[in-house]
Design brief:
This protein has 407 residues and is α/β, with parallel strands linked by helices. The protein is 34% helix and 30% strand.
Length: 407
């Protein structure tokens, strides 16, 4: 059992309290359990709703580095059958004939990443709970109050139970209550853009190539997915659009919406036909001024939220997990305090550069490409073409995209 309960069942003792049972929170709990560290994860949403196809239409790009983490904790085998490999990435600016092409064979024999629907990863995490008795998920459940003392934390749950632990982890998303209660300030701004997400069927084979086409309103990405019956060439669309145009795009019927997609992407893959429903999400930047406080560590979107332009949001959170697990496992092996100030300072230091670099890079890319100023447009098109002709620089960028550098 991950937690010891007293005779009345009203007090639960564990090593780590994780507030938020989403992709990052449960991955962290699973990884800790495999290191012999007990944790209790608390989430307000029932597991059944989080694995429903209507809950979240997004897919995530799982970089090679993240795949290796998921493999080490025994999760990848559950995900792999529904993971669409990315063998190449093609980056273009509008209708320019100049482009940047990444071929995975230039850096090895592994795909550069995989596109996995978030519901698939959630299902794998929930279905795998029985494999890791060191992790307990309490859902649906809310944390009413959290007390962070010198020697540990105590969370009072909505049903009156109290969870005691050495350290609390805020994995409760961009609107993190734990982060706000700790007084951790954030830098945030809206991009004035919305991400429209849907699945499409492609007329021609996608050949496992991910496309990112930069348009004045923002990037339009087509990401290869695994096929389903009747639609062997399936892809995920992440269409960035100006906020003011989104309502009228969402109001279009399926045929008109598909026509708008085709107009933006062109006929490289033949006609794109909408499959199923559409989702939309506001796009913004969020960066916490620090990732720790007394007996508290932030992970995932509670610490940083970035533009999806490079598909690195989940990967950044999984790198938080990797570093935090390494530090906690080391302390656990030596019998040290899992919530010590020294450990938390080390975590904050080790994640700071990687986080700041990716936040700056995604923000800069979006600002560079989300405009139609003629001199800037010419310069960036020439820049894409120049990088395409510089193999050493291309390989460096590819390794960053694969998550084998950083963290």
């Amino acid at each position: 059992m991950s937690a010891q309960q007293n005779e009345t069942g009203m007090r639960i003792e564990t090593d780590i309290l994780i507030v938020g049972g989403g992709l990052v929170g449960l991955t962290l709990g699973r990884a800790l359990a495999l290191k012999g560290i007990r944790s209790v994860a608390v989430d307000r949403e029932p597991a059944e709703s989080q694995t429903d196809a209507a809950y979240d239409g997004r897919g995530s790009a799982i970089a090679l580095g993240s795949k290796q983490l998921l493999d080490r904790i025994g999760l990848w085998d559950r995900i792999a059958p529904e993971a669409g490999p990315i063998l190449d990435i093609r980056v273009s600016d509008g209708d320019s004939r100049l482009f940047l092409h990444y071929d995975h064979r230039e850096v090895g024999d592994q795909p550069m990443g995989w596109i996995v629907e978030n519901t698939v990863t959630r299902r794998a995490l929930f279905d795998g709970l029985a494999e890791v008795p060191g992790l307990t998920l309490l859902a649906p459940m809310n944390v009413a109050t959290l007390e962070r003392r010198q020697d540990g934390v105590a969370a009072t749950l909505a049903d009156g139970r109290i969870v005691s632990a050495r350290l609390a982890i805020a994995a409760d998303g961009r609107g993190s209550r734990l982060r706000e209660e700790a007084g951790i300030k954030v830098t945030r701004w809206s991009y004035g853009q919305t991400g429209i997400v849907c699945s499409v069927s492609m007329e021609r084979p996608h050949r496992n190539i991910a496309h990112e086409r930069f348009l004045p309103a923002g990037p339009f990405a087509l990401l290869p997915m695994t096929g389903i019956p009747g639609h062997p060439n399936r892809a995920s669309i992440v269409w960035t659009e100006r906020d003011d145009l989104v309502p009228q795009m969402l109001a279009l019927d399926d045929d008109a919406f598909s026509a708008e997609m085709n107009r933006r992407f062109g006929d490289y893959c033949g006609r794109l036909t909408l499959l199923g429903r559409r989702w939309h999400y506001p796009l913004s930047l969020l960066l916490a001024e620090r990732m720790t406080d007394r007996r508290l560590a932030l992970v995932g979107d509670a610490a940083h939220g970035i533009h999806p332009i490079a598909g690195q949001g989940l990967n950044l959170g999984l790198r938080d997990v990797e570093v935090l697990v390494e530090l906690l496992a080391g302390a656990h092996g030596l019998g040290l305090d899992l919530g010590s100030a020294a450990l938390l300072a080390d975590y904050d230091r080790r994640r700071r550069v990687d986080t700041m670099t990716l936040v700056a890079a995604t923000d800069g890319l979006n600002r560079l490409f989300s405009n139609d100023i003629a001199p800037v447009r010419l310069a960036r098109r020439l820049g894409l073409a120049a990088v395409n002709q510089m193999p050493p620089l291309k390989r460096l960028f590819m390794r960053h995209a694969m998550g084998t550098i950083g963290g």
